[in-house]
Amino acid sequence: MWQKMLLPVFLGQRVPPETLASTLAELDRCLQLLEDKFLKDQDFLSGPHISVADLVAITELMHPVSAGCDIFKNRPKLAAWRKRVEAAVGEDLFQEAHAVIMKAKDLPPADTAMKERLKPLAQLLLQ
Amino acid sequence: MGLQLYLDLLSQPCRAVYIFAKKNGIPFELRTVDLLKGQHYSDDFAQVNPLRKVPALKDGDFTLAESVAILLYLTRKYETPDHWYPQDLQARARVDEYLAWQHTALRTSCTRTMWQKMLLPVFLGQRVPPETLASTLAELDRCLQLLEDKFLKDQDFLSGPHISVADLVAITELMHPVSAGCDIFKNRPKLAAWRKRVEAAVGEDLFQEAHAVIMKAKDLPPADTAMKERLKPLAQLLLQ
């Protein structure tokens, strides 16, 4: 989220392409584990019913989605799970919870004070 | 076949699981997974834990990863004394809170300290820039302060008057930098007193036994070329 969107767009800070590539590779690795180790052939992460695990996971995955990373595109299994989770939660509530993050890309650029304050965090997230 | 615990006592979370199982007299078969030899990458072990990490549990056909999940599974299955994971709503929430926080806070800084202060230079013969180590020790210090101020406060143990799984997870974590030669308890009398209480509650013998491997880590012979190659990606990660 930070390397693809918040750092360049909000903080006006360049992210080296190899850093972003490395991060996306790690994200991909985690998504594969999510599918293979946790979801497997089940409807939800811990079995046939939605649990808090699914809520924690889906809200996590919406983060890169809001940054413009369509992580569900080549992952039909995860995409199907996402639909089930959204249906179980209810579309309205799901949209409501994600309204802020989905508009993050439209945030006006940070002012100098905000840039200063976020500098240490930005450094950390660039490693 | 009974309960099997896949552990390497070099690892902090493995020590917590080991101490918990032994202290509560839980019968288990110890299956050692030698991390330095890369045994956690074997296909056999992947059957037990596809995440390729220790600790891992196998109970009949049921396999489980993640130390916190394993500890809580054991408290439930073996109905261990209440204080380990109290039924009381708020007391339990305090244990949960610590268990959730520690992964990305104390665990991270203790692991980095161990590697940057000892394993990288001594075992892998790799230079660690002084400013990197200084930054890691500063972060460790920050976490220790939070441990004292937010979690321990004026209590005897992390979640209240009695020892819980939170204390096991924390103490095994803190022994990591200690074994690397960082005496983190030296200027922290509150934490030092808590450590004594935890060791007494666990039992000195069991505590020493669980930490025998890590306390000897500084005497490990330098890694051979094959091991250095295998550990290279991890070393890179832990040098950032």
UniProtKB/TrEMBL annotation, chain B:
GO cellular component annotations, sorted alphabetically? cytoplasm
This enzyme's EC code(s): 2.5.1.18
What keywords appear on the UniProt entry?
A: Cytoplasm, Transferase
Per the UniProt entry, what is one GO biological process?
glutathione metabolic process
Catalysed conversion reaction: RX + glutathione = an S-substituted glutathione + a halide anion + H(+)
Where in the numbering of this chain does the GST N-terminal domain appear? 1-82
Principal localization? cytoplasm
Query: SUPFAM superfamilies given for it?
Result: GST C-terminal domain-like, Thioredoxin-like
GO MF term set: glutathione transferase activity
Q: Where in the cell is it found?
A: Cytoplasm
Describe, as the record does, how this protein assembles with itself and its partners: Homodimer.
Question: Under what name is this protein listed?
Answer: glutathione transferase
Species of origin? Tursiops truncatus (Atlantic bottle-nosed dolphin)
Q: Which gene encodes it?
A: LOC101321703
